């Protein structure tokens, strides 16, 4: 830690202590046990510490170009404290000591999560006429065997050799390399720094041996005990269960919602009039037995996913609505920029990105644009959002192009959604395993003379070679796609044995076992396995980013926390306050609250005797965008004041208009600025009196 960082920590502690002093003096002043001058002196001292802290933090940011880790930690601690105190979310099973990686959403948390999910549904499902499905979380093994999850959905784990505590190997290595790069006391020489940076960029994709080599090379130990670590070994992240009372059918809790869509492809295509392209969507919980859940909602063991599978003809990945996003300029962090010297994302028009081949096709770029628009509407600061393209070695061999939607938080850049062109991989895998053709048919406008590949297994030769398994091998040969069949043919023609995958395992076939021919045929259409473009979102991660980007403190002697949620996602849209405890005002407030409820606007009515200022502060903390105050004028001319949370400006609105106006503000049918131009402002002094 540098001298400057140590000073920042010291000032933060001093500010917290002085804040306590101010609060206690204020309480004593109320009881007459402290005088006004004492309170004012304590406030002045607090302001001085804060000014000094601010200056030191700015100096740190200027000299290093980074936000200090203490500022980040203090910010996050204050935010998490607020979120848990106001029951946005809390660790699950708390009275039994909690279990890592599980969180309960409380009332405002449920409401905002629901609003966010609904906004997602409106933005994608309704807008694109997607086919929404809901499938079970418990999934039979065969489905996840076909998808590759049973064999390959693993992370590398290491254990503390003395205590047995588990750690995720890549996270430990990443943390160690990051610490080396950030060590200001013993900075790395330039060449080593470059090497460590390159290693860091590749950690996510390293296998166990490569991770083990780095653990040995850098002498990485268990973080809590400094004990030695075991070599890394793969750990499957799925929760295993058994289905039925006999317990003989293996099942898993789904690790993603996507498979439910793939297995229903045939019926969905039929439902869609056998026409492509079409998209199906699913919102639901997914389960991953993460080795080391951390960072609150960001890495949990049960989370809500919202996934889209957009099926297209592999020869035509254009999108009919691409023009509507072509001019948007999100920050793109392409492969080229990540490999370059500057390593910085750039705003690029999506139309240009497709034209230059940076993004593989229009459909993928369309979803990147739509994702960017949605995140903006949800309250993510778009200057702190980027789309990072997967490096070639990060992508599965079948993927054509992948981009992660990442948002910057105090934890660094967080992947909130993955957008991938997965080619025909998933449908092909389920076709092979289920023996059900998951094809689409394309009718040509004119019949075409085409060269087709026919694969004819020789059952006798296969029987000699594979005995009981001969049928499975014959089926796998018949199910080969054009490309795989040609690969096999070229091996066989060269006199070598070729490979075919049977039930997830590669087996060798020789020339007499199969005949592969190219033939000219006149065809009216063709069957093909569609490609799929998959945008996959984690609702909890997006929500956490919205929390971070919405949180700020309003300056004053006691900094007051505010969550500047957009009206669209805010858990409560309005509060209704009678100015003072009076039966007539309370009755009117109840009536206004009922009219808001009838307009579908969640609202809270607060008839506590607290000052209006305190009541505003409590609702600012849970991000309520609008507050209706019922004052005495309401009894005279049936009007109330309406306060906007961030500007704290107030306007006077006839009671008859209140519900409609708030509805319009929430639906973005009007803006606060337009409302303020339409209704008279409440004079500053009168507004302040209410604080
Ligand atoms: N453990 C988790 N907790 C919360 N959200 C998650 C978790 N794992 C994945 N997600 C969310 O689901 C989305 C799609 O899942 P995907 O399989 O692409 O994630 P991933 O690449 O495995 O994520 P990561 O590399 O961070 O583990 C992610 O973009 C993320 O928003």
UniProtKB/TrEMBL annotation:
GO terms for biological process: mitochondrial glycyl-tRNA aminoacylation. Residues 78-567 form the Aminoacyl-transfer RNA synthetases class-II family profile domain. One of its GO terms (molecular function) is transferase activity. InterPro entries: aa-tRNA-synt_IIb (IPR002314), aa-tRNA-synth_II (IPR006195), aa-tRNA-synth_II/BPL/LPL (IPR045864), Anticodon-bd (IPR004154), Anticodon-bd_dom_sf (IPR036621), Gly-tRNA_synthase/POLG2 (IPR027031), GlyRS-like_core (IPR033731), tRNA-synt_gly (IPR002315). Residues 29-59 form a coiled coil. It is an enzyme of class 6 (ligase). It holds the Pfam family HGTP_anticodon. Belongs to the class-II aminoacyl-tRNA synthetase family. Homodimer. This is Glycine--tRNA ligase. The lineage of its organism: Eukaryota, Viridiplantae, Chlorophyta, core chlorophytes, Chlorophyceae.
